[in-house]
């Protein structure tokens, strides 16, 4: 019994130091490579370049997409304001009314010219347009296009409605500007615009034109004739 116990102790003593060696050898064995699946190879990875804004509430192109970036207009579709428009608007001063009242026309041709002027209101329209341009100080504009050199093509539009004549005047301002000329408040001076262009257009409803034709009809004596024909006949009576 004693010898049997000694053998057991000896065997246990011999096996004890082998246990950590076996663990170290097992840890040193290289892991076999993982075989890749064909589906994994064929599947294309979704990179950030494909859709960088997926799941995001902000867009980099937008002026207010990032609360910590510069909010000045620089991309297509951004809004800015153009101030000091009188620097690019050239209009004559308002006309002064002549004293003594209107003079009576002495010939039928003069009467025809007065009749044509009364219908077209050429002087009145011109004066109204000049008045609107003189009062033009600031206008909102949109970036229509960004050029390859970084400059922006902007276009502003303002509508003024005149209840008295039931017409509206549309003023359009276009030009090219540099992003560096836009102030921190997103305002640019009109003097910074390259190739500035200011246009004004008048729009009137057709009902008002028909009403004027009815008023002119008794003067010519013909209801169905055209305006040009009636004016020419009216002017030809004095020849």
List the helices and strands and how they pair.
Layout: H1 2-15, H2 18-28, H3 38-42, E1 79-83, H4 108-120, H5 122-134, E2 138-146, E3 152-162, E4 167-177, E5 187-189, E6 194-204, H6 206-220, H7 227-236
Parallel strand pairs: 1-5
Antiparallel strand pairs: 1-2, 2-3, 3-4, 4-6
Strand proportion, as a percent range, falls in: 15-25%
Major sheet details: 6 strands, mixed
Residue share in helix: 25-40%
Unreliable parts: none
- The protein's oligomeric status is single chain
**Structural class computed from helices and strand pairing:** alpha+beta
Number of DSSP E strands: 6
Characterize the overall form: elongated
State the helix count: 7
Rg calculated over all Cα atoms: 43 Å
Please state how the strands of the largest beta sheet are arranged side by side: 5-1-2-3-4-6
What is the residue-averaged pLDDT?
Answer: 71
| Order of helix and strand elements from N to C terminus | HHHEHHEEEEEHH
Distance between the termini: 159 Å
């Amino acid at each position: 019994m004693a010898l049997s116990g000694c053998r057991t102790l000896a065997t246990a003593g011999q096996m004890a130091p082998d246990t950590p060696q076996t663990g170290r050898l097992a840890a040193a064995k290289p892991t076999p490579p993982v075989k890749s699946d064909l589906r994994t190879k064929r599947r294309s990875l979704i990179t950030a370049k494909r859709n960088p804004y997926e799941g995001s509430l902000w867009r980099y192109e937008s002026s207010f997409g990032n609360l910590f970036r510069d909010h000045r207009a620089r991309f297509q579709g951004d809004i800015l304001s153009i101030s000091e428009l009188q620097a690019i608007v050239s209009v004559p001063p308002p006309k002064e009314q002549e004293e003594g009242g209107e003079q009576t026309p002495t010939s039928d041709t003069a009467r025809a010219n007065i009749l044509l002027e009364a219908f077209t209101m050429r002087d009145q329209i011109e004066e109204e347009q000049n008045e609107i341009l003189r009062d033009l100080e600031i206008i909102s504009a949109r970036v229509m296009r960004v050029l390859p050199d970084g400059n922006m093509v902007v276009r502003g539009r303002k509508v003024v409605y005149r209840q008295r004549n039931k017409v509206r005047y549309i003023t359009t301002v276009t030009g090219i500007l540099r992003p560096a000329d836009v102030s921190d408040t997103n305002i640019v001076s009109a003097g910074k615009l390259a190739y500035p262009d200011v246009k004004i257009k008048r729009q009137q409803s057709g009902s008002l034109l028909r009403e004027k034709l009815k008023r002119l009809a008794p003067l010519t004596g013909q209801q169905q004739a055209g305006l040009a024909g009636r004016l020419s006949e009216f002017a030809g009576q004095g020849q």
